């Protein structure tokens, strides 16, 4: 089953982190085991909605991300379902050892909300532009990882994370980003979604790059190229069946992610297709460099993460496909 | 033993490397047969080099990377408070481990939150792998540090069981702040050639050395082997 998503001329924009914050309130209402922790970033990660509604189940830890990860682990060990919120840079890098040993090795039900993922974080610069989470988190056994593409999908990913047993990392961004999905768009944890059909190549994207991929598809259509667009929101466990089918049916893949090229979405996809159906691939990603301050739009442009970069990658991959 | 009994007190070893002690205690308390100890740190056994929740029922949370346990115990204590549960949480730490920053993040949190259902124990033997703690990176004055973090500090001779029991009772009775028991110990106590020598921190004794050490403790290798194999 595929959902065809056609973008209107003007797309509504909303923050992914708001989807996270709103979903936590819904979860809190359904399940008394839901507890939320934050490391001095209540407004910014939008857990403020939960804090207002359920102050008794809201734990402000202060500026201590490693401690927060451990406290969440203890809460999970005692039967709670803790969601913690901080910036991705701190959740994935600073607290990586705590994720690995205490959370993942034990297999605890800790849900990690990593905000401010990607170069589009903007003026804060390199330290706060998390671009390594996918590589780090997906290399840790027992971890699951979701990178939703917009407000609606972040909401659904948060609900899905609560229902999944075991640790889950959800990566979302800072900026208002185009809302490409609707409330009724299917979302299944562990499964990618075909957002637009095509037979010449497949663009597999996650996060805000799903929107760029859909725009790239329109530009490619004008040149007579039909690109399939896949929203691969769950990066671990990877939907290998879908990825391999795309490789088989379209014979070329471009991956698009707002993340370092090493070990990210592109790496995960390449690892899958190389086993059964190797095809030419191109990677649209951050090319092994740190970010910098700037406006989100100019940074996306400067770091090669716009629809036209996907178009150029598609043209390169098609040349290799026909050789 | 029911490792899933919901009202159980939680005992967590932040110092995962003391598995020989943890597993011996667990076996003696009936979590698994004594004979399992013979396969400690082996591929065939379920007793990992460092405690693993997945492998050994009764291990609450896996540990082994130092400094992480007190945070976990803060989480369990917070959950008990949320649930109105009387369960208490005990966290065993090392003195070398006090060099880890996360210990103090957790200490600050527990002090701030007045987690009086939480009790820390520091095995204060003044030794770590590379030498004497005070030579490597001194932690003194340790009691003052914990007091500064708003903890109730109790100091005991860690080899004196009645003193230890009194300390636990005092910790349980103390309201409005977490308690930490600084247990002054001598590493290798009772064995003349091991006592207070950091070189024995992570070194297993050779068979002849084991025999000598056990003899000094009034028992023998044969007696223990027979008991373990029978168990």
Defining traits:
heterodimer, A: 323 residues, alpha/beta, seven-stranded mixed sheet, five-stranded mixed sheet, 12 helices, B: 231 residues, two-stranded antiparallel sheet, 8 helices, 7 strands, 36% helix
Largest interface between protein chains, with number of residues from each side: A-B, 32 and 33 residues
What's the overall average pLDDT of chain B, rounded?
96
Uncertain stretches of chain A: none
* Helix run count of chain A: 12
What kind of oligomer do you see?
heterodimer
Output the structural class of chain B.
alpha/beta
Strand content of chain A: 15-25%
Strand order of the largest sheet of chain B: 1-2-3-7-6
Largest sheet entry of chain B: 5 strands, parallel
Helix content range of the residues of chain A, please? 40-55%
**Poorly predicted regions of chain B:** none
Determine Rg of chain B (CA atoms, Å).
Answer: 18 Å
Helix content of chain B: 25-40%
Count of strand segments of chain B: 7
Structural class of chain A: alpha/beta
Output the strand order for the largest sheet of chain A. Answer: 3-2-4-5-7-6-12
Name the beta content range of chain B: 5-15%
Order of helices and strands of chain A: EHEHEHEHHEHEHEEEEHEEHEHEHH
Radius of gyration of chain A: 19 Å
């Amino acid at each position: 089953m595929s959902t065809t998503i056609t973008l209107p001329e003007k797309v509504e924009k909303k923050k992914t982190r708001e989807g996270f914050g709103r979903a936590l309130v819904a979860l809190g209402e359904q399940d008394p085991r839901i507890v939320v922790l934050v490391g001095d970033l209540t407004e910014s990660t939008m857990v403020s909605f939960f804090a207002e509604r359920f102050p008794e189940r809201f734990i402000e830890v202060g500026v201590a991300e490693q401690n927060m990860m451990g406290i969440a682990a203890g809460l999970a060990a005692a039967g709670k379902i803790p969601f913690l919120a901080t910036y991705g840079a701190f959740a994935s890098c600073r607290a990586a050892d705590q994720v690995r040993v205490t959370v993942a090795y034990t297999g605890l039900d800790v849900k990690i909300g990593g905000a401010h993922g990607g170069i589009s974080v903007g003026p804060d610069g390199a330290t706060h532009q998390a671009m390594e989470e996918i590589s780090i988190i997906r290399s840790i056994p027992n971890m699951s990882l979701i990178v939703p593409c917009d407000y609606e999908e972040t909401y659904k990913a948060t609900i899905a994370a609560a229902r999944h047993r075991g640790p889950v990392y959800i990566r979302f961004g800072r900026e208002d980003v185009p809302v490409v999905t609707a409330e009724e768009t299917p979302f299944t944890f562990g499964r990618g979604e075909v957002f637009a059909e095509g037979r010449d190549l497949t663009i597999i994207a996650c996060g805000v790059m799903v929107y760029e991929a859909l725009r790239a598809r329109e530009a490619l259509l004008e040149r007579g190229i039909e690109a399939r667009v896949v929203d691969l929101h769950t990066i671990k466990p990877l939907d290998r069946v879908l990825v391999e089918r795309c490789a088989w049916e379209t014979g070329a893949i471009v991956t698009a992610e707002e993340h370092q090229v090493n070990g990210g979405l592109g790496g995960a996809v390449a690892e899958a297709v190389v086993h059964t159906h190797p095809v030419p691939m191109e990677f649209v990603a951050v090319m092994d460099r740190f970010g910098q301050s700037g406006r989100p739009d100019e940074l996306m442009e400067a770091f090669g993460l716009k629809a036209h970069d996907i178009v150029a990658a598609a043209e390169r991959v098609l040349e290799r496909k026909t050789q | 033993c029911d490792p899933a009994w919901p009202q159980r007190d939680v005992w967590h070893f932040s110092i995962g490397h003391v598995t020989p002690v943890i597993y011996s205690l667990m076996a003696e308390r009936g979590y698994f047969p004594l004979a399992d100890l013979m396969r400690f740190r082996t591929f065939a056994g379920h007793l990992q080099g460092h405690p693993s929740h997945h492998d050994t029922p009764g291990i609450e949370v896996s540990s082994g990377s130092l400094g992480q346990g007190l945070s976990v115990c803060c989480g369990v204590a917070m959950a008990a408070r949320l649930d109105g549960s009387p369960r208490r949480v005990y966290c065993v730490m090392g003195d070398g481990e006090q060099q880890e920053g996360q210990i103090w993040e957790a200490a600050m949190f527990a002090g701030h939150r007045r987690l009086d259902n939480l009790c820390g124990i520091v095995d204060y033997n003044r030794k770590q792998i590379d030498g004497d703690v005070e030579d490597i990176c001194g932690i003194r004055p340790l009691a003052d540090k914990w007091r500064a973090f708003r903890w109730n500090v109790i100091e005991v001779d860690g080899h004196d069981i009645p003193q230890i029991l009194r300390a636990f009772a005092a910790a349980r009775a103390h309201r409005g702040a977490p308690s930490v028991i600084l247990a002054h110990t001598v590493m290798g106590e009772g064995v003349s050639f091991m006592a207070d020598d950091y070189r024995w921190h992570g070194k297993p004794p050779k068979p002849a050395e084991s025999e000598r050490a056990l003899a000094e403790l009034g028992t023998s290798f044969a007696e223990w082997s027979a008991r373990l194999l029978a168990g």
